[in-house]
Each structure stands twice: as structure tokens, then as C-alpha cells.
Design brief:
Helix content: over 70%
Number of helices: 4
Largest sheet: none
Distance between the termini: 41 Å
Oligomer: single chain
Order of helices and strands: HHHH
Length: 70
Amino acid sequence: RRMRIAVADVLGWLASGMTHQDVIADYPELTEEDILACLALLRTVSARLSLEQDIAAFEQDPNATCLEIL
């Protein structure tokens, strides 16, 4: 599909208050599925970063429980 719209741009528009329909109206080459894919990527990256932070906290204090880390 050769689009040059960055995921960060789409997420920024959504964060600024644009609805999915607003984004699609401004960028008709995007679909609802594209926007959902951007949100899924954000969820995956966020979960990975959270896991990395939990691992780092555990490495600093191996005696900490999961609840203390969270």
C-alpha cells in the first residue's frame, strides 16, 4: 500500500482528541483497520516496556514481590 504515514502521527492525532473518523476524513488512504493496527502496536510496545521495567526492578531487588514492583 506504500503509505508514508507514521504510526506516531496517527497515535498523536488520536491523543489530541481526533476520533478515528476524523483521522480517516483527513487521511482517506487510512482505514479503520490501520488505526486499530496502530493501537495494537502501541499496546504491544507498552507491554514490552512495562515488562522490561519489571525485570529491571527485580534485578535491583530480587527479594521484591511482584506487587511491590508494580
